[in-house]
Amino acid sequence: MNLMVFSLCWALMVVCPRANADMPAVDRHVVVLVYHRFAPTVDSTMTVRMQTFEAHLHTIEAAGYRIVPLADILSWHEGRQDALPAKVVAITVDDGHRSVYDTLWPALHGRAVPVTLFVYPSAISNATYAMTWAQLRELAGTGQFDVQSHTYWHPNFRVERAHRSADDFAQFAHDQLRRSKVRIETEMGAPVHLLAWPFGIHDPELERIAREEGYTAAFTLEAQPLRPRQPAMALPRYLITDSCGARCMTDILNAGEGDHE
């Protein structure tokens, strides 16, 4: 509020609007994408061809969006940062598939595209389809990749609950979240506080357990923009497959742009 307006309000003895506090906030459209595998051709339902991925990046840029670290979006969601651009996208990749190292990383060399990797440690340096811990450390060393948790061995919590007692299930969930966090922190030498729910499955009990194990935010597979009032343990992401071309990505970016929260 400028000095002239303040002086006029004082002279007329009326209540002036407070500077900054009551000014309308910038409307933001925040989108989080999740990929799994990358390859020249589609060899699984979760594989995205690199030409499709490149089309996504072009569409995002052409629509005036900026790709930002997921951590920046979480700071904004928690009210600790208000410096996000009006239109932002975060890119996440689940599972720790070796194509992240072999295919995605070479394509991103020299490009300011931050990526958050959600991995499950049982596969790393063990399964033939997965990256090694050395490869993950190399990616993290670039400053472009952040490594976070996808539980210890990617269980279907709905199935596990069906054949376990309540106490056994709670212990199992604690173990999955704790072991993953500890192993990644030990291997990567950096704190882990984010979680991607396997298959997007979550509920109030699992969310409570995640908080107790030291996670501050967790992500689902609910296809909608991320908004300020959504619970931190159930933040939405768009699951991206190769069938989502440039038009599909445009529709995702346009979804909810008229919302005001």
Describe this structure in words.
By secondary structure, the chain is α/β, with parallel strands linked by helices. It has one domain (28-254): Glycoside hydrolase/deacetylase (TIM Barrel), CATH 3.20.20.370. It is 37% helix and 16% strand. It contains nine helices and ten strands.
Number of strands: 10
Beta percentage is 15-25%
SS class = alpha/beta
Largest sheet: number of strands, sense, barrel closure = 6 strands, parallel
CATH class: Alpha Beta
The named CATH superfamily: Glycoside hydrolase/deacetylase
**Contiguous helical run count:** 9
Question: What is the H/E string?
Answer: HEEEHEHEHEHEHHEHEEH
Determine the CATH topology.
TIM Barrel
The end-to-end distance, rounded to whole angstroms, is 23 Å
Tell me the domain tally: 1
Shape: globular
Give me a quick take on this structure.
This protein has 261 residues and is an alpha/beta fold. It has helices at residues 3-12, 50-62, 70-77, 99-108, 133-141, 157-162, 166-188, 204-212, 246-254; strands at residues 29-35, 37-39, 47-49, 66-67, 87-95, 115-119, 145-149, 194-196, 217-219, 238-239.
Relevant terms:
261 residues; TIM Barrel; globular; disordered N terminus
